[in-house]
Specification:
20-stranded antiparallel β-sheet; 5-stranded mixed β-sheet; 38 strands; about 40% strand; rod-shaped
């Protein structure tokens, strides 16, 4: 009884083992197919590689492997040469396997090869069949061939189809190594590679092709940028519609060559770092981790460890990190010395150097005294360290002397022309036309108002201006001013109309003034008085 149970169990196990399917076709192999058409007498009229038939009928892609007088090897070489610029490694692998194909193939007549259902084809022409012409199988024994070929069908193929079949098998061999279980991607890749259409592909189209057929590594070149034969992952690269690169993820730490204004620079990129490009192919950001000098048409950047954001025209948009800029900037023929790091309050602060798209300076900190023009060709002289912002037209927008750790209020000031005299100021703002918008004077002194009268202002007085150059606001201590021909004691500030007439004052004494109704009214100390443009009191309110 036990013997019978043992034999039954052995039989069941044997049946299960025999019923196991081959994994990925490894026991049987992987096949290449042809479309075989016959006449009414069952005689073969044509044999065509399935790859070519599908490409022609489904995608309007036609193979082109040169003239009929070329050999099979020469036709294979044409296809591999098309691949060479985009994947040197893959092209060399295909060439090696193509060179030894014949020595690894056995051509057998009068046979029918076992059909391997890995083609997943969609159509065949009426009166035709898809037949196995070749089986590829990893050799097990020393005497084994890698390829078993139906010689009867092989002999009917023309040289284009024979070359295409060999290419199919060496492409499929590579695909199997990437765990592909059918030949659909191989047939598509083979059809494109053997067509002249491939020669018209731009970088974007080639990357899409590689991604579609499961090939990750791709070599692309961008000659205009000096980037040649760079290895990309086809899954981690994107393009603009015209085929120019948009961004890519660096595959490994490497140094790449970047062409900027005719000079080639070495850029260090780290693995997994994303690199972004403008639509015209210009890099959006370049980084240097080692000291370097970067040259632009009118100036140079001395980079210790810096990052430069670029406009699409190859001019800098923003320079940050540890860097200096030397050369001519938009505000004249002065040679600037711009810095990204400067001392402030016993610390080191970072402020990027920023440009407009036309190349003019937008923001920067200067090392060394500079001379600027403003207003009606009046001159402003800066202290040793100052930070400025500029308008698009190159005129100053604002400028300040940032306090250094050894700040000296007598040294770190601006020297400007104000009302015909040279004075010292802390901070200055300007309108786009070059006129002063705001300044803070260092010293106590006299100011001539628009109506010609002089007033005394205290130290650190803040003054603002209208676009036309007239006063807008003057901060004061306590001073006297003529209002309706009366000497009036005021404090805090004076506001002005754009015409130059006084708009409001803060009273520091009681005074009688004429209002808009023609009445003489006594206004008390600590009231703010508002005037019309012709000098009459419009209203008064308690100073808060």
């Amino acid at each position: 009884m036990k013997t019978h149970l043992f034999l039954l169990l052995l039989l069941i196990l044997s049946g299960n083992l025999l019923a196991q399917p081959s994994e990925g076709g490894k026991e049987i192999g992987n096949g290449g197919d042809v479309v075989v058409c016959k006449d009414s007498n069952d005689l073969i009229t044509s044999v065509e590689l399935l790859d070519f038939y599908e490409a022609r009928t489904l995608r309007n892609v036609h193979h082109d492997l040169g003239s009929n007088d070329l050999s099979i090897d020469e036709k294979i070489q044409i296809a591999i040469n098309r691949l060479h610029p985009f994947s040197l490694q893959l092209a060399e692998k295909f060439q090696t396997n193509a060179n030894k194909f014949m020595s690894e193939a056995s051509f057998l007549p009068n046979i029918t090869l076992t059909d391997i259902p890995d083609s997943l084809h969609l159509i065949i022409p009426n009166g035709c069949t898809v037949e196995q012409i070749i089986i590829q199988k990893e050799p097990i024994y020393p005497e084994d061939f890698r390829y078993i070929i139906n010689k009867d069908l092989w002999d009917i193929l023309d040289k284009d189809n024979k070359a295409g079949l060999i290419l199919h098998e060496i492409i499929y061999q590579d695909s199997i190594s990437r765990a592909q279980t059918n030949s659909t991607q191989t047939r598509y890749f083979n059809a494109i590679l053997t067509s002249a259409q491939f020669e018209k592909f731009n970088n974007k189209r080639v990357a899409q092709l590689f991604k579609n057929v499961g090939i990750q590594e791709i070599n692309l070149s961008f000659p205009d940028l000096g980037l040649n034969n760079i290895t990309f992952n086809s899954n981690e690269i994107s393009f603009y519609d015209d085929g120019n690169i948009k961004n890519w993820v660096v595959q490994s730490d490497a140094v790449y060559h970047f062409n900027l204004h005719g000079i080639v620079y070495d850029l260090n990129y780290k693995k997994n770092e994303s690199v972004f490009f403008h639509p015209n192919g210009m890099l959006q950001v370049v980084r240097w981790s080692q000291p370097n000098t970067i040259y632009f048409p009118d100036y140079k950047v001395l980079c210790d460890k810096c990052e430069i954001k670029m406009f699409s025209n190859g001019m800098p948009q923003e320079i940050s990190g540890i860097a200096r800029l030397e050369g001519k900037i938009n505000w004249g023929n002065n040679v600037a010395d711009l810095i990204t790091l400067y001392p402030k309050y016993n610390c080191t602060y970072s402020k990027p150097i920023i440009f407009y798209s036309n190349g003019s300076l937008k923001q920067g900190c200067f090392k060394g005294s500079q001379s600027f023009l403003y207003g009606n060709n009046e001159t402003l002289i800066t202290p040793e360290i100052s930070c400025s912002q500029f308008y698009f037209n190159g005129n100053l927008e604002t400028i300040s002397a940032d306090s250094t750790e050894d700040y000296d209020r007598n040294r770190d000031l601006f020297d400007i022309t104000f009302q015909g005299q040279r004075v010292k100021a802390f901070i200055l703002d300007f309108y786009e036309n070059g006129n002063l918008q705001m300044l803070i004077l260092r010293d106590k002194g006299n100011i001539t108002l628009n109506d010609g009268q002089d007033i005394t202002v205290s130290a650190a007085t803040r003054i603002t201006f209208y676009l036309n150059g007239n006063f807008s606001w003057i901060e004061i201590g306590k001073t006297y001013i003529n209002i309706q021909d009366k000497k009036t004691f005021i404090d805090h500030a004076i506001a002005f109309f754009e015409s130059g007439h006084i708009q409001s004052v803060y009273l520091n004494e009681n005074i009688t003034l004429k209002n808009i109704y023609g009445e003489m009214v006594k206004y008390k100390k600590d009231y703010k008085i508002y005037f019309t443009d012709n000098g009459l009191v419009e209203k008064a309110e308690k100073n808060k």
